[in-house]
Amino acid sequence: MKYGIDRRKLCKAGLGLVAAAGLASTLVAPTLAADAYPDKPITLVVPFPPGGSTDLLARQIGEAIAGPLGQPVVVENRGGAGGTVGANYVAKSDPDGYTLLMGVTGSNAISAALRNDLPYDPVTDFDPVSIVIAAPLALVVNADSDFTSVEDVIAYAKENPETFTHGTPGVGTSMHMTGELFGLETGTKLLHVPYKGSAQALQDLLGGQLDAMFGDILVTSEHVKTGRLRALGVTSTQRHYLLPDVPTIAEAGVPGFAAFSWQGVFAPAGTPKPILETLYAEINTALQSDKLQAFFMEKGFLVESKTPEDSKAFIASEVKKWKGVVDAAGIAPK
Fold first, then answer.
1. Which residues does 73 contact at the CB level (< 8 Å), separation at least 6?
2. Is residue 255 part of a domain?
3. Euclidean distance between CA atoms 96 and 90, whole angstroms
């Protein structure tokens, strides 16, 4: 019939409507999920044992954002392999905003250059929520040392390659990498002495068995104040409030020098943008609270609070930077 209904066309049209409805539901579902987020507890994975600075920071942030989000934030410690075990666990988790990582310089930047078997990519396998804090280091020597400035160290190291010793908590740590970066930017080669922890290295520095350390500012500043150590420079771009009379290394003769140990919150890649933005907004607000500000001051941390977009670019630049240092220093990846 001229005006009859073509059953085949009707069938195709019906299938088309079903397909379109399916596509629409697929497109809408993440948005609805993001709008409802969070509707259950959030797990914040710390890739180290309890009690360290990363664990303490995670618990402070988790407690601060739990109230506004209306859900508990449960800190889960998954230590091992320099933080990479916990990082890999989060990288392989569902990208739904309910499993997050408190990542650090080692797990989310340096590890990419030092390990051939790293089971995740720090850049492509995570969506950063925010780089939360940065912790610069201090170049310190024993108070009885003849070294009184950064220039003294550079001059000695140039005349005596690989004899100026600096102790670190181990290969690949931010303290080790900072020493390698210092050597590259000053045309020197320091002698790296790895320990099984920073406490042992500090003890040998205080005892006169080491020439120097790029040490944690909070810990070393206490010994500077008591007169047992001498601080020659800090690795931040500005002077640090715990050592206000100590110049930056850039000021002290190495223009442009900067190195930080940083910590941040990461989600698995593919996490919906609205969820990342919700988490960032609450974390950013928490970082401005009196309680967290006091905690940061006590620990010597500098607040960063980078946005998800800025954090993503920062991680890519950090991976590139430390890979360059590892390659130039001739450190063979494992």
1. 41, 42, 43, 44, 61, 62, 63, 65, 66
2. no
3. 11
Angle at 74 between CA 73 and CA 76, to 5 degrees: 140
Domain span holding position 210: 136-234
What value does the mean pLDDT of the chain take?
A: 90
d(Cα 146, Cα 153) in Å, to the nearest integer? 10
Domain count, the chain: 2
Q: State residue 34's pLDDT score.
A: 55
Amino acid making up residue 107: S
Q: What is the pTM (predicted TM-score) of this model?
A: 0.84
Yes or no: say if 113 and 82 are a contact pair by the CB < 8 Å rule: no
The SS3 of residue 315 is helix
Q: How far apart are CA 44 and CA 92, in angstroms?
A: 14
CATH number at residue 192: 3.40.190.10
Q: Is residue 301 part of a domain?
A: yes
Determine how many CB atoms are found less than 10 A away from the CB of residue 98: 19
Mean pLDDT of 250-277: 96
Share above pLDDT 90 across residues of the chain, in percent, rounded to a whole number: 81
CATH of the domain at 57: 3.40.190.150
pLDDT in tens, 51-67: 888 999 999 999 999 99
